[in-house]
Amino acid sequence: MTIIEKIIAQHAQKARVVPGEIVDVEIDARAARDFGGPNVVQHMEKHNLSIDDISKTFFTFDTNPTGSDQKYASNQQVIRNYARKHGIKIFDIDNGIGTHTLISEGLAWPGSTAVTTDSHANILGAIGAFGQGMGDKDIAAAFHKGKVWFKVPQSVKIILTGELPKNVTAKDIVLNLLHQFGAHGLLGYSVEFYGPVVDMLTMDQRITIASMGTEMGVIILLFPPNKEVLDYAESKTGRKIEPVLADVNAVYAEEYEIDASAFVPMVSRPGKPHDTVNIVKEKKVKIDSAFVGSCTNGRMEDMHAVAKVLKDKKIAPGVVLKIVPATDEIWNQCLNEGLIHIFKEAGAMISNAGCAGCAAGQVGQNGPGEVTVSTGNRNFPGKQGKGKVYLASPATVAASAVAGYITTEDDIPVEPAVFEPDGNIGLETNEKITKKNNSEKSVEVAGKVWIVPKDSIDTDMIFHNRYLQVTDSEQMGQYIFDNLEGFEDFSNKVQSGDIVITGANFGSGSSRQQAVDGFLTLGVQAILAQSFGAIYERNAINAALPVLTYNSLESAGIEDGDYIKVNFKTGEIFNETKNKSGQIEPFSEVQMEIYQNGGLF
Q1: What are the tens digits of pLDDT across the range 376-428?
Q2: Integer distance in angstroms from the first to the last C-alpha of the chain?
Q3: How far is it, in rounded angstroms, from Cα 509 to Cα 555?
Q4: Contact 504, 530 (CB under 8 A)
Q5: pTM of the predicted model as reported, rounded to 2 decimal places
Q6: CATH class of 283-403
Q7: CATH number of 3-262: 3.30.390.50, 2.60.40.1180, 3.40.1410.10, 3.30.499.10?
Q8: DSSP string, 41-57
C-alpha cells in the first residue's frame, strides 16, 4: 500500500484498503476555526449531538486573530461559550494558524489523521500525516462520532532528481510544480514525494510545498518523514513515533521523475495560483504593497529569509510591507532574535500571528487597483482584496518591497521606483437581493440549463470571502457568482429549478459551506461538472445538493437555456429541447443515502 492507504487502513481498522473504497476513518484531531466554527456549534446544538472525545476536539481562532470585526468577534464568543460548556480546548486569537498549531502542539504527528474547517489542513502531509479540510457538517459529524466517511484516493509518486539551484526556494519548487501540473492535472490524487532533493528539504520547506496542495487540486502532498520531522514530532508528543511509509511494491496511478535542476524562481500572476511564470517575465512590475505570511510562508525560515534582505534597507516610499508569522511561538522567536527590530527599522508592519491576507479578518487585504506581491497560496480574484496579487517567495517579496517593483534579492536597485498618479480612485458599489429556495428534491429532476463554460471556478468566485461572516443560509444565495466575471448577476436571473453545467475543477479552493448552500437557497436543482474540488464535492453531498460529473455531454447537444432531465440513480441525461440523450456518472451509494436523508444530518 501507499502512505495514504496505510494511514487510512490503520484508522479504519482494516488490514487493507484500495483506491475508490469508502471507509469510516477515525480522526485523531478534530478542529474547527473561527471561520466555520460557529456553524459547527450550530449543528451540534440544533441536532443535540454529543462529543465523542473531548481530548481530541479543538477550536482554533486564526482567520480573525485581531478580533477586529464585530461579526467575527461575536462568532468567536459563541464558540468560547460552547467550549466552556463542554470543556473543549481553544487556541484563541493569541495563538496563530490552527494547522501549524496541530503540529507544534503535538496534536498531529507522522501517521496521524486530522480534520478541520481549514481547506489547507492537508498541510499536514509535510510531516507524513493525513490532514483534510472539510465543511462544517463534516466537522460536526467528526466531533460527534470521532469518524468521517472518506473515499480512498489513488496515489501518484513524484521523484525530484538533480541538484536544486541555489536561488530556488521551496516556494519556487511548488510554483514550478504548479506550472507543470496546473490546477487539476493531479486532481483528486494523493501525491508522495521522493528523491535526493526531497531528502534535503527541511520541515519548514516541506510545509511550504504541502500547503499548496489544495491549489494543485490534490487530496494531499505527502512527504515521508525524515529525521528532523521525527525528532520534532517526538519532542512535541513526548513519545516514540514510527513513521508510516509506503511498501516497496506500492501501486501508483502515475509516477513522474522531474529534474529539479531545471527549476527557476517563479511568480504566480494575478488571478490563478497555477498561472506561474519565470520571474524574469514579471520583473519591474510596480507594486503598492507586499505581504509575508500565511500557512505557506509564515515559518521561522521564512522570517530569516526576509530579515536577510531587509537588514540595513528601507521599504520603498509609498509601499506597505505587512509581515505576519504563522504562530505566536515564531513571533516570539523573531522578537528574541532581533528580527522584529530589523523589520521595523526597514519600515514594515508586523501583526500578531494568524492567517492574515488569506482571510478577510486581518492585515493583508488590498484595494481596487492595488498591486500586491505576496507569499500566500492563493491569488484568486478578490481573495486577498480587490486588487491584483502576485505570489512569490519570501525573499522575492522582501526584495520587491525594497525595490518598489517585482524583483529578486540579487537585483535590488540603488534607488527604489516611485509612484506616478493614474487618476483611478477605484470606488465601487454593490447591491444584491435574495431569492428563496422552493424546489423539491427528487431522484430525477428537470430544469432549464445554465452553461458556465469555465474551468477551476474557485469558491471565492462562487461565494467571496468578504461574506464569510454570513451564517444564515437564507442570506447566501444573493452572493452566488457575484465574483465570477460574466455571471455577476446570476443570483438575480437564475430561477428555482434551474440546473448549472460547468467545466473541470468546480469549487476549488476554500472549504466554505456557503458556496454550496447559496445554490440551495436559489433553488438550483443540480450542478454538473467534469470534476469538482474535493472539499466542495463533500460539502455538496453532505448538504444534499446534487452534484454529478461527466466525461462528455456532446451526445446530448446541450446549450444554454435548453430544458433537460437528469436521473441521479442511473446517470441518464435527456435533452428535451433537442430530443437527445447522454450518460453521466450517477450518485454513489453514500451520496444517494445522504441525499435521500435530506443531508448528512
Answers
A1: 888 888 777 788 999 999 999 999 999 999 999 999 999 999 888 766 555 54
A2: 33
A3: 31
A4: yes
A5: 0.84
A6: alpha beta
A7: 3.30.499.10
A8: HHHHHHTT---S-GGGE
